[in-house]
Known about the structure:
This protein is mostly helical. The protein has one domain. The protein has helices at residues 2-44, 47-63, 71-85, 90-110; strands at 118-123, 128-132, 151-156. The protein has a three-stranded antiparallel beta sheet with strand order 2-1-3. Strand 1 and strand 2 form a beta hairpin. Helix 1 packs antiparallel against helix 2 (47-63), helix 1 (2-44) runs antiparallel to helix 4 (90-110) and helix 3 (71-85) packs antiparallel against helix 4. The longest helix is centred in the N-terminal third of the chain and has 43 residues, at 2-44.
Amino acid sequence: MKKTRIIFTFIMTILGQSLFAQNTNMPQAQLLAAYYNIKNALVAGNSSTAAENAKIFLKTANSIDYKVISEGNINILVKDAGAISETKDIKKQREIFANLSKNMAEVAKVTKLSDAPIYKQYCPMKKAYWLSNEKAIKNPYYGNSMLTCGNVEETIK
């Protein structure tokens, strides 16, 4: 009986640690997903959806513990996303998105945001980067007019 209880306690401890590890990664993964949703809205040329997704990004960023992503980095990301959320002008959103992308790339290099690779992509026409969860180029800066303009510059793991 005592041996069974020890084994049971050991298994529950391992499961608990595993679940805790997954939960601590959740806010970063949600932040990255919100970023991708902003990017996808800009690819589609939908400024309203981009603004709504920027609001979700803000809410997620503000829920992240500063031990996970530094306060300075959170503040920079919040500033960029806040500006996107406050306008429905797709040109302005795309301009601001370039800065958000630069800052997200810096955060992605120092903080594990995902177990999946993150592709840092580059638009030579805009001279700006963005992050993607797929290698295929879908340019958020020009949408349908230059959808496949760009290339993968780096893979962040």
